[in-house]
Specification:
single chain; 8 helices; about 35% helix; six-stranded mixed beta sheet; alpha/beta
């Protein structure tokens, strides 16, 4: 059986415009436009999907035009702990040791009072099971770090490369899951 999962980051958030990591801000005006365009893409192409998002405002707002959505905390962005809602420059200035530790081993680096990419992979087990058990196609609206880990679960990536996978805003990542293989398509003209 062939199954398709569509992955998208939330639309541009207010924190994205300020280069702040984490937080729970809503969408910018550009993010709201993407929310509409994302829905129109599925509607215009007659693609029926079950939509799941994180519990954070920006993903819920991105799914606004879909009839029914389900939220899962497992899809929340990486918990950046004491660095939440800071820019990387602020982190480098306030916590230079942490900033350098993160650069040397980004996959296993855990923010103080927060998480690592490895932690995300562990908490996504419920989502992996949901994907395996569902008979319908899914649209998962989540966050950059989470989507990097999800994509790497289906499209082989060396652990050291996962934190650097390109998961851009305003882009749909389509993973076609077949019995013995998975294929990734990138749709960025919606």
């Amino acid at each position: 059986m062939i199954k398709t999962i569509y992955l998208s980051r939330h639309g541009q958030s207010l924190n994205n415009t300020k280069k702040l990591i984490g937080g729970n801000s809503g969408l910018s005006s550009d993010g709201k436009q993407y929310s509409y365009k994302l829905h129109q893409y599925f509607k215009n192409n007659n693609i029926n999907v079950n939509v799941i998002t994180s519990n954070l405002i920006r993903t819920i707002q991105t799914a606004k035009y879909f009839n029914e959505t389900t939220q899962f905390e497992e899809l929340n962005e990486i918990n950046s702990g004491i660095c939440d809602s800071m820019t990387y420059l602020e982190i480098e200035n306030k916590y230079p040791e942490e900033f350098n530790k993160r650069k040397t081993n980004k996959y296993y680096y855990r923010y103080p009072e927060g998480e690592s990419y490895s932690d995300i992979n562990s908490r996504l087990k419920k989502i992996y099971n949901l994907i395996n058990d569902t008979e319908t196609d899914l649209l998962i609206i989540a966050h950059q770090a989470v989507l990097r880990v999800l994509i790497s679960n289906y499209i082989y990536s060396d652990i050291k490369d996962i934190p650097y996978l390109d998961v851009s805003l305003n882009t749909i990542y389509k993973i076609i899951i077949e019995e013995n293989s998975c294929k990734l398509e990138i749709i960025n003209s919606i």
